[in-house]
Amino acid sequence: MSTPSLASGPEGPDALRPLLGTVLDALGAGGRARGGPLPAGGPDAVAARLRDAVGDVLPKDGDPDALRTLVHALAEGSADPAHPLCAAHLHCPPLAVATAADLAASALNPSLDSWDQAPAASELEALVTRALARETGAADALVTTGGTESNQLALLLAREAHGAGLRLVHGANAHHSLARAAWLLGLPDPVVVPAPAGTLDPAALDRVLTGSGDHRALLVAATAGTTDAGLIDPLPEIAALCAAHGARLHIDAAYGGGLLFSDRHRGRLAGLDQADTVTLDLHKLGWQPVAAGLLTVRRPQDLTALRQQADYLNADDDTEAGLPDLLGRSLRTTRRPDVLKIAVTLKTLGRTGLGRLVDQVCDHAREFAALVHAHPGFELHAPPTISTVLFRPVHATDDTVAAVRRKLLTDGRAVLGRALIDGRLWLKATLLNPHTRPGDLAALLTLVEELVEGHPPR
Ligand SMILES: Cc1ncc(COP(=O)(O)O)c(C=O)c1O
C-alpha cells in the first residue's frame, strides 16, 4: 500500500474529493438501509449488525473499503436527528453548511492552543466569541465542548473570584451538570431551591439568600430552557434578588440561548445581560454538529483565573513580541476550531435566517401541542415555552408510557424522550427540525395512539 494521502497541503483537496464521494454515497445508502429515525431491533440487534459489518477493527493488512463500510454501518445504525420522528433530545439536525465547514476545520486541523498552530482560526474565534458575547450583554466568551463544560467553567470562574467556600444555589429544575461541577471542584453541596411549576421559585430563592447570613459567597444558577420542559426561569426577578443579596449569577441558557436570534422570542431572555456568566450551546438550538458550546463572561478580568504559561506554547518573550497568548482561553490544550462552523452558519444565515429557524421549531411545538390538546386520548402537560412538548396518553400508567417509548425505539419507528414531572411520567417531543411538516406531527401522535391501544390501561 502506498503512503496514504493527506487532507491538507497542495494535494489535499484532490485527495479528499473522491473520498467525499464515497462518504456521501455511504451516508445515503446507510440511511436508506435504516429506513427510519432509528435502527430497528434494539441494542443487541444493532450491536450485532455493527459488529458483523465492521469485522476486525485492526486487521493485519488494511482494507481500502473501510471508509465506505464504516460510514455505511454508522449511518445505518444511527439515530437521525433530521428524521421528523426523531425528537427525543436536544439533539439537533446539523445544517449542511455547518457540517461542510466542519470538514474544512478537520482538513486544516488548526489547534487553538497557540498562535503558530492557528493564526487565522484564533482571530476568527476572537471575532465570533466577542460578537456572541455582545448578544448576551457580556464582554467576552470562551468556546467549549457544550453545556456541561460551560457550566463547569462558570463554577470554576466563580470559585476563583470568590474562594473555595463558594456555595452553588440552583433550582430543582437545573441540569445535572451544575451539581456535578460543584462536586468536581470540591465545592460544598449545592443548595437546591424548589421549582414547583418547573421554574425556580423566586420567593424560595429569596429565603435562601436571606437566610445565608454567614457571609458565605453564593453562586445562583438559573436556567433559560430546562432540559425536561424547555421552561425559562424568571430571570429578571432572579437577577434582582442576586443584585440585592450580592450573589453571583450564572444562567444556563444551553437550550434557550438560541432564542436570542429571533425577534419574536428574544424578549423571553430579558435579564440574561445581568448574569456574570451565561452558558450557550449551539449544538442544541443552533443547528451545529457537536461540539459548539460557549460560555459568555461579563467581566473579562474573571478570565485571568485561566491564565497558564507553558514555554512551548506561550513563552513570555513570544507574548511580549506580539504572538497572541491562547492558552488561557480554555482548560483544554489542543483544541478544535469549532468556531469555523459557527462563523459560517452565522454569516450564511444571518440573524434573520437563524431567527426563522428558531421561529419554525417553536411554531411546530405549538402545532403539536394543539394536536395533543385536541385529541381526547392525550393529555398535554402545558403549552410549550420553546420547542418541547410533554404529553401522555390519558388513563395510561407510567409503566405503559415507558413501555410505549421503548417499543417505538425498538421498532425504530420514532424517538421520543421521557420526563418525570411531579411524580408522573410524560412523553417528551423536543422539536428541533425546521423541515418537519404538520403531517409528520400528526403521524407521530397516531403512532403513539396505536401503540397505547395495544397496551390496555392497568
Ligand atoms: C439546560 C442544559 N444545560 C446543560 C446541558 C448539557 O449540555 P451538553 O450535553 O452539551 O454538555 C444540557 C443538555 O441537554 C441542558 O439541557
Descriptive keywords:
14 helices, 5-stranded mixed β-sheet, binds pyridoxal-5'-phosphate, 7-stranded mixed β-sheet, 3 domains, 458 residues, alpha/beta, Aspartate Aminotransferase, domain 1, 12 strands, Aspartate Aminotransferase, domain 2
Portion of residues within helices: 40-55%
How confident is the prediction overall: mean pLDDT?
Answer: 97
What percent of residues are in strands? 5-15%
Order of helices and strands: HHHEHHEHEHEHEHEEEHHHEEHEEH
SSE-based structural type: alpha/beta
InterPro entries: PyrdxlP-dep_de-COase (IPR002129), PyrdxlP-dep_Trfase (IPR015424), PyrdxlP-dep_Trfase_major (IPR015421), PyrdxlP-dep_Trfase_small (IPR015422)
GO biological process, one term: carboxylic acid metabolic process
Modified residues (N6-(pyridoxal phosphate)lysine): 284
Organism: Streptomyces luteolifulvus
